[in-house]
Amino acid sequence: MPLLDSTLPLAAAPMAGGPSSLPLATAVTRAGGFAFLPAGYLSAEAFEADLAAAHGTGQPFGVNLFVPQPGAIAPDTYRAYATTIRGEAEALGVDLLAEPRHDDDAWREKIALLVARPVPVVSLTFGLPDRADIAALRAAGSRVLATVTTPDEARAAEEAGVDGLIVQGPAAGGHSGTFDPRRPIPEVATDTDTADVVRAVAAATRLPLVAAGGVDGPGAVRALLAAGAEAVAVGTLLLRATEAGTSATHRAALADPGFDSTVVTHCFTGRPARALRNGFVERHHAAAPYGYPELHHLTRDLRRAAGRAGDPHRLHLWAGTGWRSAQARPAGEIVRELVAEL
Ligand SMILES: Cc1cc2nc3c(=O)[nH]c(=O)nc-3n(C[C@H](O)[C@H](O)[C@H](O)COP(=O)(O)O)c2cc1C
């Protein structure tokens, strides 16, 4: 049985924080692709409302969850970084949280909601949860996919009982799903990096694979399918889509020739993520500690204020290496073009 309920081997990757709107998901599904909706960062109440709205469309879709992280940052380290970035917050008139805040992204509540109202596919990122949670989602009728970035993570996920894998290459935009945030994400040397990871994972497990990371056009989709993936997920290429919920500041930056590279950095959230290199990255990447979700909570209000103020140099501008190919067009056109020559 295929992992995704779609006629095309193409998925809209989950993009938490706004970009993956329900209109985007609907447009991708109508075009024959499969859409993942993000649950990350949402309160249980907000996720319940999104889940109900998505069920209301009558279309199949996937839900993506952030696996809870262990509290990892020492309070002194947190306070030192808060002091380092205080000027950024002051420039936007924002107060920073004085003490580290930890949470589990309402994990238990989201699992309970998905067990009560199952969806065809649930994908996980940031590691593996208890086997019991995977089993509960599967018992409710969902196929469970784990995001992995290495063959070792793939073996661990297979061992934990998932149905398939999202193989995320180092070129991917946004957070890496790496199980170990301190492991350096490999430099992207060539266009085939994600395909290399797909081949290595395919050799390490028998699970079906969806590939993601750095797709910049139909050639990359073909290469990932040829490497052994049964479908390809794209994120960055949909960030400027008409139906996406991407902020105006983020959209403008993606189209701004003044931004000339992407970089993997943990300076915004304490977890590695690929973003356009901007002023905040230049100023703080080197000194930033690890610690998700504490750093996410530390910088959240400042990033929100930057987005509202149209300040792209204090915002996390998530982008994969294919960002220059992201177009401001209807998502259905983007999807159809990506698979036109399969
Ligand atoms: C703005 C943005 C938000 C993202 N949010 C999530 C998320 O909530 N959950 C997740 O598993 N992956 C997330 N990702 C990663 C994507 O699922 C996917 O791996 C990535 O977009 C693929 O690489 P590409 O952006 O080069 O196409 C995000 C990526 C972006 C660009």
Give, in spatial order, the strands making up the sheet with the most strands.
1-2-3-4-5-6-8-9
CATH-defined superfamily of the largest domain:
Aldolase class I
Q: What's the number of domains?
A: 2
Find the count of extended strands (DSSP E, 2+ residues).
11
Portion of residues in beta strands equals 5-15%
CATH class annotation of the largest domain? Alpha Beta
CATH architecture of the largest domain: Alpha-Beta Barrel
Ligand identities: flavin mononucleotide
Can you tell me the CATH topology of the largest domain? TIM Barrel
* Amino- and carboxy-terminal Cα gap: 20 Å
Largest sheet: 8 strands, parallel, barrel
Series of H and E elements: EHEHEHHHEHEHEEHEHEHEEHHH
Are there runs of 5+ residues with pLDDT below 50, and where?
none
3D shape? globular
Explain what you see.
The structure is a single chain. This protein is α/β, with parallel strands linked by helices and 342 residues long. It is built from 13 helices and eleven strands. The chain has two domains: 1-68 and 104-246 and 325-342, Aldolase class I (TIM Barrel), CATH 3.20.20.70; 71-102 and 260-316, no CATH class. It has an eight-stranded parallel barrel, surrounded by five helices. A three-stranded antiparallel β-sheet has the order 7-11-10, with no helix packed on it. The chain is globular and about 55 Å long. It starts with 9 loop residues before the first strand and ends with a helix. The mean pLDDT is 96.
